[in-house]
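Predict fold of Hemoglobin subunit alpha; 120 aa.
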Amino acid sequence: MPWTQILFRMLEVFPQTKTYFSHYADLSVKSSQVRTHGKKIIDAITSAVNHIDDITGTLSSLSTLHANTLRVDPANFKLLSHTILVVLALYFPAEFTPEVHLACDKFLARVSHVLADKYR
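Predicted 3D structure, encoded as tokens:
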């Protein structure tokens, strides 16, 4: 499941992100908690795609949650975006053309910006 790979890879490649998941008993790729949270991430991104004309409104509650309750360092949104691009390239090498890469990068940069919005 690509969504499990996204969160797992981010936690492995950027170990500083593990601090936000210290309550998870298992951070392995087979962890049900990693799978569940990875699915939440993909669902949020899917929602942003489906509401591309209002990404800010669509992700507003997530931005508030991450800023005010979870207090996630907003730099981690960029790390997650990078990891998503890597996993897309690995799972869909033929489809991940330079043009697709650019479009996904622009979209994920917008998502990262919106998620970091409540920090300002």
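The mean pLDDT is 95.
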